[in-house]
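Many introductory courses stop at the sequence. We go one step further.
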Amino acid sequence: MTDKPNRPTIFAIVQEHQDIMLILQETEGELTPELEARLDACLRSSPDKLDAAAAVWRRIKAEAEMADEESKRMADRKKMFQRDADNLRSRMLMLIDEVHGGKIKTAKTSAYGVTGANTVTVGLAADADLNTIAITDPSIVRTTHELNKSEIQRRLAAGEAIPPEVAIEDHPGKRYLVIK
């Protein structure tokens, strides 16, 4: 009689997936120290558990991508509904203004047109110089100063000097897991 290799059954594989999913779903992905310990113990118990965890990770990533696609689809649908509502509202206003003198009352609806407050757009004239205005009337010009981070990065890469007043913090890259 020959010994069969000790392979997990389909039931065991499904159970491993469910164990890992249950740990993650109990707190909606927020792991407490107790759940982290449970998950670590589960993953340390056998390489098959790591395979199961990788499968669960792939499933979660796929669901996140599907949710993202659905979110984009719903955002596009929302824009379409808003555009349609705005177009219909504009047509209704035009009709109410033309046919009913700007207002109408029916058994179910009261509608009338209103003119909103005027708005003012402020900008710099095409031939104006902002520096001249800042000198002649500084109260109407806002000046902001900030570090040019791309220039600082370039100087760091080139080994050029950076003034001591500029604080530089070097953060090591984050270590992450690649699953294929």
